[in-house]
Amino acid sequence: MTTSDDATLRLLHERYAQPLWRYVFSLTRDSYQSEDIVQETLLKAWNSPRILDEPVEEVRGWMFTVARNLVIDQSRSARSRHERSIERLPEEASADHADQIFDEILIHDALAALSEPHRQVVVLAYYGACSTQQIAAELGIADGTVKSRLHYGMRALKLALQERGVTR
């Protein structure tokens, strides 16, 4: 771009950018779209070599006509008919929790296969994060009994999970 090109573009912008933007904004009510259309209008004027040789009022009228036609063209385009702006973004995609849900169902089903005393101890130990002493105090049984039930309950749980297709 030469110095005269810079001066021409600067002159066009100084004279017409603000009035064009206000006019286009009154048509579109969209500041981003208005800026794009004004920029395109100024570029068309800059690419028209004899535009600055015309009287100022004719140039102004020509630029407003070009801007209006660009607004019309843009509103008729397929993009504007299919795109809709929204105020708020849709919620973000979340991870699929289906595997976690199936695992929970499988464990719940396997726990249901245990005897009540074994299930109580396993649930308190692993889901309640209780120590063997806390479990013994809560259930009113000896600490050794809790350890025994926990051991045999875990073996039964492992077997129940293997019967349901969980291997390991």
UniProtKB/TrEMBL annotation:
Q: Which domain of life is it from?
A: Bacteria
InterPro entries per record: RNA_pol_sigma-70-like, RNA_pol_sigma-70_dom, RNA_pol_sigma70_r2, RNA_pol_sigma70_r4_t2, RNA_pol_sigma_r2, RNA_pol_sigma_r3/r4-like, WH-like_DNA-bd_sf
Q: Which residues form the RNA polymerase sigma factor 70 region 4 type domain?
A: 106-157
Instruction: Give one Pfam hit by family name.
Output: Sigma70_r2
Instruction: Give start and end of each RNA polymerase sigma-70 region domain.
Output: 12-80
UniProt keyword Cell membrane present: no
Query: What family, per the record?
Result: Belongs to the sigma-70 factor family. ECF subfamily.
On whether DNA-binding is a keyword of this UniProt record, the answer is yes
- Recorded source organism is Glutamicibacter protophormiae (Brevibacterium protophormiae)
Keywords of the record: DNA-binding, Sigma factor, Transcription, Transcription regulation
Query: What NCBIfam families does UniProt report for this protein, alphabetically?
Result: PRK09645.1 (NF007227), sigma70-ECF (TIGR02937)
What protein name does the entry list?
Answer: RNA polymerase sigma-70 factor (ECF subfamily)
